[in-house]
Amino acid sequence: MFRSVLARTRTLIKTPTQVRLVSSVNQVTLVGNVGADPEVKELSNGASVANINLATHARYKDGEGNLLQRTSWHRVRAFGNIGKTMAGLVNRGDLIYVSGELQYDNFKNKDNVDVTVAAIRCNEFKLLNKKSWRTQQNDQNQDQEPESEQQDQETPTSN
Where does the source fall among the domains of life (predicted)? Predict the structure, then answer.
């Protein structure tokens, strides 16, 4: 079956543009808890970036059947309007969804040793915890109240 799928795939990809589109994917999706409030920095070009550390958890059983948890920490960077929004809405402990691409930065540390750091460049995020979600919904509803009141007045009622 694999060969038939592969053969069909080869026949579907006809132009170099299509080959480039399906040749690689750099997509990271994480759901986890924010470790600290976002840290916002201004860059030399005038842009801003919000940095957070995101904790994801994996639960598993050891050889004796004990339930254990492993926590992994991820660096997340959000630039521009996404970063400003993240800085304004996200707080320590919030459960968020993050989608973006994996990037690597290389630099020399204070001991002149080459260091490579992985980070996710955030393209999208969503608050998932109920408290923040309710706050977001209330803010959106307050912004839309005058419009909804006008719509209610214009809608005929039936008896």
Answer: Eukaryota
Are 33 and 93 in contact, with CB atoms under 8 Å apart? Answer: yes
Q: Which domains can be identified in the chain, with CATH numbers?
A: 26-144 (2.40.50.140)
Half-sphere exposure of 102 (CA within 13 A, CB side): 11
**Residue 20 to residue 13: CA distance in whole angstroms:** 10
Residue type, 24: S
Q: What digits encode the pLDDT tens for the residues 44-56?
A: 998 899 999 999 9
117: CB partners within 8 A, 6+ apart? 75, 104, 105, 107
**CA 12/CA 17 separation, integer angstroms:** 12
89-138 pLDDT, tens per residue? 999 999 999 999 999 999 999 999 999 999 999 999 999 986 655 555 55
Do 39 and 50 form a contact (C-beta atoms < 8 A)?
A: yes
Q: Based on the number of CB atoms within 10 Å of its own CB, is 120 exposed (0-12), middle (13-18) or buried (19 or more)?
A: buried
- Full-prediction pTM beyond 0.85? no
